[in-house]
Amino acid sequence: MKKIVLLFSLSLLFAVTSNACTKDHPITIDQLPQTSQQFIRTHFASLTIASIMADNDSYDVRFTNGYEVEFDKKGEWEDIDCVADAVPAAIVPTAIKKHVSTNFPTNFIVEISKDHRKYDVKLNNGLEMEFDKNGQFLRMDD
């Protein structure tokens, strides 16, 4: 019986500790990785930061105008959501910009996310597309 109680206690302690470690907590811009700080200064310098939340895997920066940028733990951007405005053109790979401007000349990118394999893009008309890591068009998402 003592072993069961001890095992239960250790399991509970582990669960509480792991939950506390992964929970989002607010930080200041100075606590972001330098890469993230430079990215914000370069592409979003005119905006006011509303909050920055951190957890073990990522940083989530929200601006007062509703924009949101998510960075990985190294400080590289993973997701940019500019709500109904265009994502800064300098962020978007050239091949993706060319595909969008050629095939959707009256639309623009409002959200872009990336991982090690691909880019996902959302246009202001609601269309979503997928591109490979080199920016080559793969497919439209439903």
Structural write-up:
Residues 5-10 and 15-20 have low confidence and may be disordered. β6 (109-114) and β7 form a beta hairpin. The protein has three helices and nine strands. A nine-stranded antiparallel β-sheet has the order 1-2-3-4-5-6-7-8-9, with helices on one face. The protein has helices at 2-22, 34-43, 94-103; strands spanning 25-26, 49-54, 58-63, 68-72, 77-81, 109-114, 118-123, 128-132, 137-141. The chain is of the alpha+beta class and 142 residues long. It starts with a helix and ends with a strand. It is globular and about 40 Å long.
Strand count, sense and barrel status of the largest sheet are: 9 strands, antiparallel
Cα-atom radius of gyration = 20 Å
Pattern of helices and strands: HEHEEEEHEEEE
The span between the termini is: 55 Å
Q: What does the average pLDDT come to?
A: 89
Report the portion of residues in β strands.
Answer: 25-35%
Instruction: Give, in spatial order, the strands making up the sheet with the most strands.
Output: 1-2-3-4-5-6-7-8-9
Number of discrete helical segments: 3
Strand-pairing-aware structural class:
alpha+beta
Overall spatial form: globular
Parts with pLDDT < 50 across at least 5 consecutive residues: 5-10, 15-20
Provide the helix percentage.
25-40%
Q: Got a strand count? A: 9
